[in-house]
Known about the structure:
It is a single chain. With 155 residues, the chain is of the alpha+beta class. Helices cover 20% and strands 36% of the residues. It has one domain (4-153): Nucleoside Triphosphate Pyrophosphohydrolase, CATH 3.90.79.10. The strands form 2 sheets. Strands 1, 2, 3, 4, 5 and 8 form a 6-stranded mixed β-sheet that branches. A two-stranded antiparallel ribbon has the order 6-7. Strand 4 and strand 5 (86-93) form a beta hairpin. The protein is globular.
Amino acid sequence: MPKTSAGLILYRKMRGKLEVLLVHPGGPLWAKKDLGAWSIPKGELDDDQADYLATAKREFAEETGFPPPNGEFISLGSITQKHGKIVHAWACEGDVDTKTIKSNTFSMEWPPHSGREQPFPEIDRGEFFTIAEAHQKIKPAQMDLLLRLQEIVGG
Length: 155
């Protein structure tokens, strides 16, 4: 059974252009990666959870430090990522101050083979990008989600 995640794309219109919030993974393995490394805020379903939208909202809050937006949630369907993970996604219009994003953390052994566990933010930053910019930044498998959003809301 493939792993399943759910995520939320926050979008806004600025000067008539559609912009989307993408997040950059934290930790030393991602520190120097940019193009093709960004993602929508998302995370795996709890073992006992079948409510994908509730998961998307929870993960948005955990990864950004902001409550999920109030508004209409637009289903963008699902995509399958490179290693088989299925991602269900929604979009909602809203805005956040990206300078104040505060993510939950994870621990990993670092440096490798040191025997020391260190905490790192799951997300080290988030930014709004125009769709053209987002096409360069987002993981290639998630590109279809942006295209679906653009088709629905324009811009």
